[in-house]
Write a structure and sequence with these properties.
By secondary structure, the chain is α/β, with parallel strands linked by helices. Helices cover 45% and strands 20% of the residues. It has 4 helices and 5 strands, in the order ββαβαβαβα. The protein is globular, with a radius of gyration of 14 Å.
Length: 143
């Protein structure tokens, strides 16, 4: 079993949905973000869970450097450890999403086409969970 999550990140596995939920509890320093995502991935591997809800609403903003680290360092680790496409629903506050959409250092999601992970951004948790459920259903049909 993975070690306990750091205080700045609540991690919960939902066996009823087969989803993992990571909720950032506050803004974090880059090293905390790196450790937190490593912990989230370890927990997902432990449960063989490829459907993630990542709630970043309590973080103050999304930084282009953080996104670059995710794309260059973190996401490439996910598929080798989980074996198939992983789906990540990012739950954001409206001001965070607006910032992401206007920040030229943060690429459009279309740059991820064809990669072994899919991301979507949401401001509504129910919509994020519905998207993950649709991904799981689609995977079940094609497996």
């Amino acid at each position: 079993m993975p070690s306990s999550a750091p205080s700045y990140l609540a991690i919960e596995y939902r066996p009823d949905l087969q989803f993992i939920i990571g909720r950032w509890m506050r803004s974090v320093m880059p090293f905390e973000m790196h450790r937190g995502y490593a912990q989230l991935l370890d927990e997902a591997v432990h449960h063989q869970c490829r459907y993630w809800l990542v709630d970043i609403r309590r973080r103050s903003f999304v930084d282009g450097n953080d996104v670059a680290w995710m794309m260059e360092k973190f996401y490439p680790q996910v598929q080798p450890r989980l074996g198939r496409t992983t789906y990540l629903a990012y739950l954001m506050a409206p001001h965070q999403l607006a910032g992401v959409l206007t920040d030229s250092s943060i690429p459009h999601l279309s740059v991820l086409d064809g990669r072994p992970y899919q991301l979507q951004r949401f401001t509504d948790e129910a919509a994020a969970l519905e998207w993950l459920q649709q991904c799981a259903l689609r995977d079940a049909v094609t497996s």
